[in-house]
Structures are given as structure tokens and as C-alpha cells.
Amino acid sequence: MRERAVSGHPDSPGRTPGATLPSVTERNGTTKESAETRPAPTGRRDDAGASLGDYRAAFYAGRLAMAVLNRDGLVLAANPAFGELVGAAPEELVATTAADHTDLGADPRVWTAYREVLCGRSDRLRCTRRLKHPDGHSVWVEVTVEPLTPEPLSGEERMLLSVADISDRHDLLARLRHLQMHDPVTRLPNRALFFERLSSALESASFAPAGTGRIGLCYLDLDGFKAVNDTLGHRVGDRLLSAVAQRLTRCAESAEDRGPEHAGHLVARLGGDEFALLVEDSTGTEQLAELAQNVLDALQRPFDLAGQRLSVSASIGVVERAAGGTTATGLMQAADTTLYWAKEDGKARWTLFDPERNAHRMTRQALSSTLRPAVDRGEFTLEYQPLVGLGDGRAQGVEALVRWRHPQFGTLSPNRFIALAEENGAIVELGRWVLERACHQARAWQLAHPGRPLFVSVNVAVRQVWDSDLVADVAGILAETGLPPRLLQLELTESAVMGSAGRPLQALQALSDMGVRIAIDDFGTGYSNLAYLSRLPVSVLKLDGSFVRGFRSQEHPNPADEMIVEALVALAHRLGLTVTAECVESAEQAERLRRIGCDTGQGWLYSRPVAPDRVAALLAAGGLPGI
Known about the structure:
The chain is an alpha/beta fold and 627 residues long. The strands form four sheets. An eight-stranded mixed β-barrel has the order 14-15-17-18-19-20-21-22, surrounded by five helices. Residues 66-94 form the PAS domain.
């Protein structure tokens, strides 16, 4: 590195130029002015002459290397300290180019700032350069160039060049910077140095014509490292981190040994058990994938740490892309997301960044963050799908299915947002809204058609049972709407109901005692704990649609599914439960379910989910026309 700091700006506007050093082109001679035109001495002139003599003496005797330059950057005079620094006698330096002695032309930015001072457009240049001393060692110097007062008679404009040896200060700062920018445990570059290097690499790759213009990153996290710290202590944990760092460094060095196209790898510890391998001028995803696999293979070998034999694995997020248009923050976000995918997919693996998968994640995040406000904005609506008696073909009830009319993504079905609502807790508020709206609608149908009341079935998430007073909510809504409890059915998934104890079981029992029917949704896909089933306050089993889809045509029967459904129906009836089959799509399936003894069916054979007014039309027609 040739440059550490550059400044081509004045210390302050309107700075007073430096002192005059007239007639320093000859160390001991006299100028034309002194020989021919000097006026008769007076006391004041004698004082001025003495003062000028002092300046000249200070210039030549000073330990600071100095030279006087003209506007062209040529040396007019140099003191012995400057000659000693560059390895030449002061008189030999006259008329030479000062920039050649101080390395000012090596960096375009420094050279531009230097020319600005020479041309009078800037008051000062101060920069740090590394020079080669005549005895062979390098010297770090601070070079300053600033104007002097013009020659009184000739008006010639001159510059003072001063060069201060700052090697000791530079070395101290370098040591302090190394401590500041490196991790004390692993001695790897730390997060600050990593981001500094990453930003520099992105900037260089975007403009350097010689490179590939691409950048790659492997972002890894040790699986289960917290358990090592918790069980064996932080000392062993630190030793493990140091050993991991050594193996990562060897992986990077091994890749660089394969050729110049694999050079430019940086290994850094970003914090905790997180490490990063930065690949500058990467050649494509294959290079990064190979590096990530080598890292996994290296870390799979056991670690021997002071008598402790440990095995660890890592999850790695891999990102490789063009540097143009990429920011350090964006690259790290992509790597962090990909690392999360690697852990989500099972750990001990590397995963490549997938823009499509990331877009899906971003959509999920956008949906999750707007769920709660969407309830207040009235973006949700309900559709209803009939539950039809297989014996008489008449609608006995409807299931309320929520839809989200999203202003950006259009109408979304429940499988797009219910899981998100359960994750962030919005399901409690949303579930309460669905329950209230469905009960209001069912009461309206009851009042309009008192001879044919329809029950309404509402899905309830297990989190609603835990995070809210579901019993009080149901009781309050029924009282407010006037809907009889027998016309309300609550559906909970099998995994939520089976094994329920404590508060959930008490809530289900209280609802059942109130007269509300409890149904187990998607029965047969969860625990299927039949022994526990008899102890639950359940009224209805809803068989999962996968069983019904197994009811193929008579030409291609699946006797196993039919036997299972037949056994489940018989068991449910012995327990006093009714059975509803989901996903009924053909008359043949409906007929076979009816022969087995299934009570009700639900599916596209009867109707897709429809708006409330279509259900009202169904009731007014007195049957179940195709909706």
C-alpha cells in the first residue's frame, strides 16, 4: 500500500501564506538585489536583514527536510536534511522535479491535489507517502506543500515542500489498527475490517477492467456451538473457534494455491460462531460451491482440544453475483437469508442464494407485517362451502373460509397467510373477527329461513385457545348475535386437539357444555390417537381429503383407503360421533362414501366456496343447485 491518507484541501479558507525565504538559491552567495540595488542601511533594514538571515539559517540547519520549489515543481533550494532523506547533496537537487523525490506522482489523486497547489487553486497539500531510504529501508513520511510569500522584487511565486518522518507514529498506528481490526480469539480479521474490505472489493470490481467484475461470499455459522459453551465452558469454546479459524484459513489458502484466478480470499470472524469467506473476482457459482463444500469437509473432521474430542458441523449461505449494483448491505442480507435457509433445510449443508425463493420470503414478510392492520382496514372477507348430507343430498351447514383481498397481491386463500398469522399472533384478532362475522351471517340465514337452519363451521387455531379467552369470546358473540349454540361448530386440527390437557381441554369441554359442536379437522393425518379420542368432547370427525382421493373409479379401486375409511366411520359411530368427508369431487365417490355410512360430504361436487348471497339463493331454492 502506497498511500495511507490524502488531503488536497486547505486547513482553513483565507490562510496566511508562509514566511518569506528570499534568495535561498545560493547558500552563501549574494543576489543581484543585495549587490546592486540594496539601499543604504538603516536601523529598521538591519533588523529585517537579520531576520531574513535567521530564516535562511533555520532553513539550512533545520532537522525537518525542506525544499523550495517554483510553480513548475522544480527544486530551487533544498536543505541538508532533505538531501539526506533522498540520498543526494542539496546542490545536486536544484532544478530537479520535487515530485520524483517524494512519490507524489504515483497516485493520481495525490498528483491532482499537488498540481492544484502549484497552480494556486489550493492552499495546501498534506499527504502520507512511503519512500525508499538510500540505505534500503522504507520510511513513512508526511509531505506538506504550501505557498510562500512571493519574492519581493521579482514577484516570483514559490512553494515550500516539507517532509516529516512519521515512521514511528505510522508503525504505532498500524499496530493499533491491527488490534482494532482483528479478533483476539482467532486472530482473523473482524467484522469492521471485513466490511471495509468488502466495500473496497465492490468498488474495485465495479471499475477494474482486468478482473471478472464479480464477488462471492460464503457466510457460515457453526451448528450447536452454544451447547459447547454451555456444557464445556467458554475456554473450550474459544479453543474450538480458534481451531475452526485455522481450518478455514487453510481452505482459503488451498483455493488460492490453485491459480491466480482463485486468489483474493479473505477469512473473517464476524462475531460469535459466525465466519465469512470473501472471494474477490469470483469466477462463478461453481467456484463458491466448491469452496463451501471444502469447508464442510474440513469441519467434519473431529477436533482434539486439550483432551476434548469435539465434532461440529456448519451451515453455509453462498452468494455469488456481479459486483455492479451490489452493496455491502445487500450482499450480507442475501448471505444471511441463505444461511437461514441452510439451517431450515436441515443444517450441516451449504445453500445457494435463490432469487425466486427470496422473493417468496419477501412476500411472506410483507404479508406478515400487514396482517394486523388488514383486519382493521376490512381487507378480509368470508366465503362459505356447503356441508351436504350424503343420505338426502341437502345442505346441513356451511364452513366459513376466510379470504384476504390484498391491495397488492389480490385475493389470497387461507394457506397463504394463516400460518403467518399463527406465527406472529395476529390469528387471535383475525380468528375473533371470522367467528363474529360468521355467527352474524348464520343468524341472518336463520331469521330468513327459520324452517331450514344451517349451522356454520369455523376453524379455530390452537393459539386462539392459549392466547385468548376463547370460551368468553364465543359466549359473548353468541349472546350478541342471538345465534343458538347448536348452530355453531368449531373446527380444530387433529394435532391441536389430540393430547390436549389443562387449559385447552377445559376450554373445549366448556364450549361443548355450552352446546357448541367440536369437530376434529383433517382427521387421520396427525397423531390419530384413537384411545384418547373417547375422552375428548368431540362431536364430529372430518376425514382428511387424502382418504377420499384414494376412492378411485371402479376400474382402478384402492381397497386400502376404502377399508380405512370404513373402519374409521364405524369407530366414530360407535363413539357417538358423526363423520364428514372432505374433498368429494365425483358422484361415484359420494355414493361409495354413502354406502360406507359417512354422514356428510364437502367438496367441489356440491359447490366451491361462494359468497353469502349465493348461499341465501341456495336456501331460497329449497335444494342444492349447482353454484
